[in-house]
Amino acid sequence: MISSNEYGSHSWELLVTVDHQKEEVQKEFLLQVTGDLHVGGVMLKLVEQIKIQQDWSDYALWWQQKKCWLLKTHWTLDKCGVQADAKLFFTTQHKMLQLRLPNMKTVRLKVSFSSVVFKAVSDICKVLNIRRSEELSLLKQPEHAVKKKKKKDKNSKEPVTEDILNLCDSPVSSGFSGSPGLYSKTMTPTYDPFSGTPASSTITWFGDSPLTEQNCGTLALSHSSCSPEILAEMYQPRTLADKAKLNAGWLDSSRSLMEQGILEDDQLLLRFKYYTFFDLNPKYDAVRINQIYEQARWAILLEEIDCTEEEMLIFAALQAQYHISKLSLSSEAQDFTCESEVDEVEAALSNLEVTLEGGNRNNTLEDITDIPKLADNLRLVRPKKLSIKAIKPYWFVFTDTSVSYFKNKDSAQGEPIEKLNLKGCEVVPDVNVATKKFGIKLLIPVADGMNEVSLRCENENQYAQWMAACTLASKGKTMADSSYHPEVHKILSFLKMKNWTMSPQAVSDPESIDMKPECFVSLRYTKRYRPKQLAARILEAHQNVSAMTLVEAKLRFIQAWQSLPEFGLSYYIVRFKGSKKDDVLGVSYNRLIRIDLATGDPITTWRFSNMKQWNVNWEIRQVAIEFDQNVSIAFTSLSADCKIIHEYIGGYIFLSTRSKGQNETLDEDLFHKLTGGQE
What we know:
By secondary structure, the protein is of the alpha+beta class. It has 18 helices and 24 strands. The strands form 4 sheets. The protein has a 7-stranded antiparallel sheet, covered by helices on one side. The chain has a 7-stranded antiparallel sheet with strand order 21-20-19-18-24-23-22. It holds the Pfam family Kindlin_2_N.
């Protein structure tokens, strides 16, 4: 047996502070421990000394100096590295957190501060009834936006926190996941697809969830418009450098909130981080669709993404249609419990599933037959320095992923004047429906940068076919791919929305409709037009969308947002290895783009499909990527931690492995393997 003196020589005192609310009970305890005592034993000793009768199951030890949780209760103090100078806190793992959603509403709920952010976001989304939580993450509010708020007048309106939706009784607060009923693929629709509110026949699916019918309406419906005064108070990026600041605050998905300095009742932004909206379904995704719509709407209003005046009016018209439809719905008492009505809605919305390339497609037989080709007369536009653009007609032939052009149709059997390989190129629409301009700008990668070529089409149909072919070719796909015809249809529907002069209907009197036109466009256009002029222009554009339902208007808005050239690009200021100046790196769902910081022009594009491997040198914080054909790049990030860019790349590759055939259980280990890095 060991004597008490001998035992004392191996033991030492460990100071632990207990986080509890009872002021009359001491909070600091000195425990006599040894290095071979496991963490669970320390917690047991501590609880015995506290002498407070309560449930301690949610408590764990937090090591303040090392900023880490001691969650492996079977590890000894020696294995954890805990010594006498360690300051440990015995605190709850689940704490209150304020989350500002994309619709600018703030919810307050309990979140796990000890789970990695990827898992915490998954639990949050289950409470909010948002499927595909892997597309979202948590973002720290940009510092420049916080500073601007501090300068505001105290009496000025606060656009985002007029009231806080308190979900403190959520399942997450007890450490449990959300109701599995919300995720059943065989269930009847959780929401009415017309208005987005819970269908009365399925309201019981919420069970113990804090999402009451009223709360569902808050999350699934767009409620308030934004006045120009409120818009003026909000941060609006003016340059690429400003846009890069917006993406600097993403939290590390592989670490917990507490490890990243987040405190109880702090406010974070819940946002869609990855722009691959997989398997959108109006039956189950009312909250998700509305939050995507709201994120898109605010991106347009705050000019975080550029669009033309014609496109801005389309976005305004779709918002106006949503506003008008909601007013008409609210004036009528409607009951959607009838199954036949739901079935009709399913049929009407069956073609509205908005998806990007989120996973592998099941190729149909047409994908392995002869690859179709396009052949037609187009005009070629080549920009020339210090002179007018050269525009000449040629006979163009599109096969596989290449486009060739000849002097005329008769010479098409011989050698082409030039053959352009479009794989990996940037395809930018250059369209103005009012002036009948249907252009396709191609930025084709060459050894010293990008070669710019533009094609001019004669009409909408020709443009839609060639634009769809170019878009697929840039991704390495041919017109035999099953996504070609849907892409053509999507382009045509977007052009039809733009062509509001084709409708013979008379424009409604702007004053007869209860709407504020300045709430639907960015500040640039409210300064350019008077309210009556703006209302008339919006109502002209509104003619082509006036028959849409609430959900259809939102889905069309999302679809139009996806059609913008800058859609899905997240910007970072970087310094490429060997370069003497800073550049901008654009990260998208399928490619990286090097952009000139001064001019905004793309310099080079690299596709994820050509990527062989990527890694990070954590000592010098440098990201290195290898592509096919012995192409290698390396850069250091100046506007954000390099871990954020590394996680973006790995996250998009992880999301590309999703398919509709698999269940919705994610391979979390694979996500962390692709995004975590080896720090």
